[in-house]
Amino acid sequence: MSNKNENLPLRSGVGIALINKDNKVFVAKRIDNPKKFWQMPQGGVDNGEDYLTAAYRELEEETSIKNVELIKELDGLITYKLPAHLLGIVWHGKYKGQKQKWFVMKFLGKDNEINIHTPKPEFCEWKWIDLENITDLVVDFKLHVYEEVKKKVKEIIN
After folding, report:
1. Residues paired with 19 in a beta bridge
2. Which listed site, 23, 29, 88, 140, has its alpha carbon 20 to 30 Å from 41?
3. Which residue segments constitute the domains of the chain, with CATH numbers given?
């Protein structure tokens, strides 16, 4: 039996591995899934927007962070698909997953500049963690994304 959701497109997205002066990575807990799962800032690309512009916009929309320096745009796109129980629910059922362009950025500001209580808040909590731990905290269907990002970021900061 075929699944009509398999014919849905992948949404274009971006992700930001935000590193502080101690080489810790920013993660936040989603309001709509406040269990034990944390994620790095990420989101969709608007029509007519390039990946880097989308990354800066998403970072500011989700965290109020503007004071960053681009370290590297990671090569290629990383794709994930939604699990069956989320298909048709997330993104109003328009997409089956995301193909993401990831960026590594250095946070140049102070922690008190970070504000997740934005006009359209997505996060209820945030923290800096060791890069090594990002794969321990992520939702299972994004695990391969975070493994790949972790490997690439390690090469950059070591």
Report:
1. 25, 106
2. 88
3. 4-157 (3.90.79.10)
**Percent composition of the chain: helix, strand, coil (DSSP 3-state, to 5):** 30, 30, 35
Output the six-digit token pair for 156: 């950059």
Of 72, 99, 75, 61, nearest to 18 (Cα)?
Answer: 72
What does the pLDDT profile of the chain (158 residues) look like in tens digits? 345 667 889 999 999 999 999 999 999 998 887 678 899 999 999 999 999 999 999 999 999 999 999 999 999 999 999 888 888 777 888 999 999 999 999 999 999 999 999 999 999 999 999 999 999 999 999 999 999 999 999 999 88
Q: What is the pTM of this model?
A: 0.92
Distances from the Cα of 115 to the Cα of 46, 61, 112, 126, angstroms = 23, 10, 8, 9
CB 121 within 8 A of CB 30: no
